[in-house]
Amino acid sequence: MDSFSTSSLSPYYHLIFTFLAFVISGLIFLFSKKNKSKKLNFPPGPPGWPVVGNLFQVARSGKPFFQYVRELRPKYGSIFTLRMGTRTMIIVSNADLVHEALVQKGQVFSSRPRENPTRTVFSCDKFTVNAAVYGPVWRSLRKNMVQNGLSSMKLKEFRAVRQTAMDKMIEKIRAEARENDGVVWVLKNARFAVFCILLSMCFGVEMDEKTIEAIDQMMKTILMVLDPRLDDYLPILSPFFSKQRKWAMDVRKQQIETIMPFIEKRKKILENPEFDKTAASFSYLDTLLDLKVEVGEKVVDEKDIQKMSYLNAVIKELLRKHPPTYFSLTHAVIEPATLGGYDIPTDANVEIFLPGISDDPKLWSEPEKFDPDRFFLGKEDADITGVSGVKMIPFGMGRRICPGLNMATVHVSLMLARLVQEFEWSVYPEKTRVDFSEKLEFTVQLSVTNENYHTP
Ligand code: HEM
C-alpha cells in the first residue's frame, strides 16, 4: 500500500452519521458477499463493525496506517486481516511468508488489485508499469522500461546529468546557508536534484528551474489527489464526494496540459533536430565541460562509489532501518490462492509490511539500532533483492521488484557522498538530538527537516 494516510480520512469522519442511513443497503451487500466468502479461512484480525469492518477504527485512531499496523503485529502476528469497507487487506510482515508469496508463488502473487476510480484515471486504466495487472501488458511495459529506460547503459549515459544536478544542489545549499546563517532545508534541495535528473531522463528536453518546480508541485498535488478516500472503501458513499472527484479531474487536466507541450517538443526535435537550437545542442557532456571544478580535494565521482565501503554500509543500513516506504506496492493474486495456510481470494489486497522483515530480531542482531558497522565490519549482510534470502527488501522482491533499484541506489550514494564531502553537518537547533520520528508524505520522512551547516 503506497500512501494510505488516516489523516486524509478523518475530516470525513462526520459522514458516519450519513453513512448509517446506508447501513441497511450495505447489509444487503454484505449478505450477498457473505455467501461468497463465508467458507474462506482468512488470517485473524481485529474484530470490525458490520459492513465498514475496521475502516473507522483505522480512521478514528488518528494514526498513520503504518503505525496502526505496527501496533497490531504483537497481537495478531505476521499475517493478519483488516477489513476496510468493501476491501479486504491481508497484511504480511515476515520473511518466510513474503518468500512464499513473492518467490514460491510469485507467478500468482505478482498482480495488482483493482484501482479506485481516481487511480484508474491517473494510471490510464492500469496502463502503467506499476499499476498493470500481471500479464502481457505489464510484461511489455516493464520490459520496455528495464531495457530502454533504466538499463545500466542508459544509466551510464546520464552520468553528466547527475553530476550537474549534484553540483547545482551543492551550490544551492551553499547559497541558502550563506543567506540563512547556516540553516538549510536539505530535503527540498535533495528532492529538487533528483527531480531534475528524472525529468531530463524522461523528456530529453531542457527545462528551466521554474518549470521543474511547477512540475514537482503538480506531482505533489497528484499524490494528494490519489490519497485514499472514504468512498474508495465504501463506494456507496461516492455521491458525497463529487467535489473531490471534480478536484481530481481538474488536477488530471492540469497534468496533461503541463506535460503535453514537452512531449510535443520532443517529438518535433526527433523529427528535426534543427527545430530547437537549444535542444539540438543539448548535451550533458557540454554542461559537464562548462562545470567549474573546485580546486583542492577531488570531487567524489560516481565510479569511486563502489569502492566506498563505509558509504555503502551506511546506505544499506539506511534502507534497512529507515526504508522510504513501509509497504511494497499492493499485491493481488491472479487466482484464489493460499498463504501461510490461509485463503487469499482474488479481490484481497496483499500488503507487505517491510519493517516486519528488516526489524525482525530473528534475522538481525539489535535490529532497533542504527549501526552501519553491521555491514561495514561484515558482521551481518543481506541481499536487498531477496534472491539469496529475505532479510530486507526495501525495493520489494520477485517479479515486481522495483526496476529503479540501481538508479535509486546510484542517486542516494552520489548525493550522500557529495553532501558529506562538501559540508560539515550538525543538528539544528544546536545541541539537540536528531529526531527520528517519522511521518508519511507519500514516502516515509523524518518529521524534522532542518539541519545546520558549517563550512569545512
Ligand atoms: C530509494 C528509492 C526507491 C525505493 C525504496 C523503491 C521501492 C519500490 C518498491 C518497494 C516497489 C514495489 C515492489 C512490489 O510491488 O513488490 C517499487 C516498484 C516500482 N518502482 Fe521503485 N523504488 C525506488 C526508486 C525508484 C526509481 C528511481 C524508479 C524509476 C525511475 C522506480 C520505479 C518503480 C516502478 C516502475 C515500480 C513498479 C514495478 C512493477 O509494478 O512492475 N522506483 N519500488
TrEMBL record:
Q: Carries keyword Transferase?
A: no
* TM spans (from-to): 12-31
Any one GO MF annotation of this record: heme binding
Q: Which SUPFAM superfamilies match?
A: Cytochrome P450 (SSF48264)
Q: Looking at the Swiss-Prot or TrEMBL record, what is one Pfam family this protein matches?
A: p450
Which cofactor does this sequence's record say it needs?
Answer: heme
Tree of life domain: Eukaryota
InterPro entries to which the protein is assigned, alphabetical: Cyt_P450, Cyt_P450_CS, Cyt_P450_E_grp-I, Cyt_P450_sf
Residues reported to bind heme = 402
Q: Which UniProt keywords apply?
A: Heme, Iron, Membrane, Metal-binding, Monooxygenase, Oxidoreductase, Transmembrane, Transmembrane helix
Q: Which PANTHER family match?
A: CYTOCHROME P450 77A4, CYTOCHROME P450 98A9
Record family assignment: Belongs to the cytochrome P450 family.
This protein is called Cytochrome P450
